[in-house]
Amino acid sequence: MPRVWNPLASRRGELLSREIAPEVHAERWARRYDGLIGELNRWVDHVRDTTYENVPYFDPAAAGSGARVLVLLQDPSGEAEEGSGFVSRHNNDPTAHNTYLAADRAKLGYDVSLHWNVVPWWVANPAKPVRRLEKEAVRAQPYLVALLEMLDPPPSEVVLLGRPAARAWTRLVRAGLPDGLREATVATAPHPSPLVYPRVDAATGRGNSDLIVEAMRLAGQRARGEKVRPPAGGPAGRRRPF
């Protein structure tokens, strides 16, 4: 039996793994073209056909009440591309587990959040020539713009996890954001990978996991229309920060 890397999803009966929880995966797979997420996944098929990349699908369990909070990371893991076939915090990998833990602590509901990557394909895919993340992020920018233009209503909150996602957003801002995203509040936080998540941020002296939770918590509160007070160390979300 393969190892369970996402025990939180496993305990809740949500683990997306063809090997460990095939019935959960099959149910989710059967719904991939339903509703709002279905429209996005038909677009994913188009991206696959035009780029010849194996792009994972959006998770049909996400954003059931609308994509009010967009959570962007750098690129899918091998598990997302070759394992579940979804970008999901229910995937069976350590980064998905850390993302789920942080969102759970932050009380950021999956029904109002959408997880995606600035590069929608696995950059380190061994079936492809060696590629650099930054170059692939430039190549992928038109697809990120296309996605943002499809989200209606647009997200009011964007959470960028990791420097590659923040740099990609900076390029996007300089090129011109789609109209609906110009007033979105943008927050940055460390990447939830197992190499980064448990460490301490040198600039603030705070745990990276706490910074991720804080960014998600404030984004969720603002998306729900709640009044929030910036943390003592400075705002975790601000208007057009780049």
Automatic annotation (TrEMBL):
Domain Uracil-DNA glycosylase-like intervals: 60-217
Source domain of life: Bacteria
InterPro entries recorded: Uracil-DNA_glycosylase-like, Uracil-DNA_glycosylase-like_sf
Chain segments annotated as coiled-coil in the UniProt record: none
Positions of the UniProt region annotated as Disordered: 222-242
Database matches in Pfam families: UDG
Protein name listed in UniProt: Uracil DNA glycosylase superfamily protein
Originating organism: Actinomycetospora cinnamomea
